Amino acid sequence: MAFSLEKLKTSAKAVRERAYVPYSHFPVGAALVSLDGQIFPGCNVENASYPLGLCAERACVSQAVAVGVRKFAAVLIMGDTERPMPCGGCRQVLSEFGDLQVFVASGDGDDVKSYWLHDLLPESFHLAPDRE
Ligand code: ZN
């Protein structure tokens, strides 16, 4: 593993504190790590127009892509539920950049489960010719 799971948990926990969730009151933090070890944190950002809300995972992807990073090793998602699984939309957005490990951490990260994105979104839709 070319990254520290503890650092991902620390990052996700910290960014979860900044989630903007006045409607659901369900803060989620996520930390996406690139193949070269850079960590991109993200939190959910809700909106009065509910469909415009942004999930934590997609916030991470936006940050990474904005600075030219598109190769990822893993993402950790932390929420106060038994298994804060990524929604279908986030699975699709993450899969645009290839396969990666998906860690889901309940509460403050005491219980972490690990998956591969290709198992969470089998036979996914792709058009990008250079996707790995
Ligand atoms: Zn989502």
What do these coordinates show?
Strands 2-1-3-4-5 form a five-stranded mixed sheet. The model has no long low-confidence stretch (mean pLDDT 95). The protein contains four helices and five strands. The radius of gyration is 14 Å and the shape is globular. Helix content is 27%, strand content 24%. By secondary structure, it is α+β, with helices and mostly antiparallel strands. The chain starts with a helix and ends in a 12-residue tail after the last helix. It binds zinc ion. Residues 55, 57, 86-87, 89-90 line the site of zinc ion (ZN).
Protein traits:
132 residues; alpha+beta; five-stranded mixed β-sheet; 4 helices; 5 strands; binds zinc ion
User: How far is the first residue's CA from the last residue's CA?
Assistant: 19 Å
The structure class reads alpha+beta
SSE sequence, one letter per element: HEEHEHEEH
- Which hetero compounds are present in the coordinates? zinc ion
- Largest beta-sheet characterization: 5 strands, mixed
Low-confidence stretches: none
Strand order within the widest sheet? Answer: 2-1-3-4-5
Strand-residue proportion: 15-25%
| Overall helicity | 25-40%
| Shape descriptor | globular
Mean pLDDT: 95
Quick synopsis:
The protein has 132 residues and is of the alpha+beta class. Helix content is 27%, strand content 24%.
